[in-house]
Design a protein that fits this description.
mainly beta; four-stranded antiparallel beta sheet; 11 strands; 51% strand
């Protein structure tokens, strides 16, 4: 199994920035792709970004392109999410996840991921 621990969430004013981190441990050699997802109260979990671990190829939910940037440090088994120009509607619990197999498409479906972190709360005040 792969264990995931997110950090970096918090309270920020609209227009501000946050950087989330997700550290993977355990069977990290299984990692094919890592993703960021978020879930606001009363809403379904939605995709944010996905990054292919070996190549660094990254894809984003279309509505978030330009504000959010995902990156990874393979040596540290760490995934990052830089979030800029935050809006109140970005308020959610942010989760990182690991896919241990190739799947077609952009890697933005929660069903593609086998391991999940506990999440970190991001609150953006207006």
């Amino acid at each position: 199994q792969v264990q995931l621990v997110e950090s970096g969430g918090g309270l920020v004013q609209a227009g501000g920035s946050l950087r989330l981190s997700c550290v993977a441990s355990g069977r990290t050699f299984e990692i094919y792709r890592m993703g960021w997802f978020r879930q606001a109260p009363g809403k379904e979990r939605e995709s944010v970004a996905a990054i292919t671990w070996r190549t660094g190829l990254t894809d984003y939910e279309d509505s978030l392109k330009g504000r959010f940037t995902a990156s990874r440090d393979v040596a540290k088994n760490t995934l990052y999410l830089q979030m800029n120009s935050l809006k109140p509607e970005d308020t959610a619990v942010y989760y990182c996840a690991v896919s241990n197999r190739w799947t077609p498409g952009r890697g933005l479906k929660p069903s593609e991921y086998a391991y999940w972190g506990q999440g970190t709360q991001v609150t953006v005040s207006s």
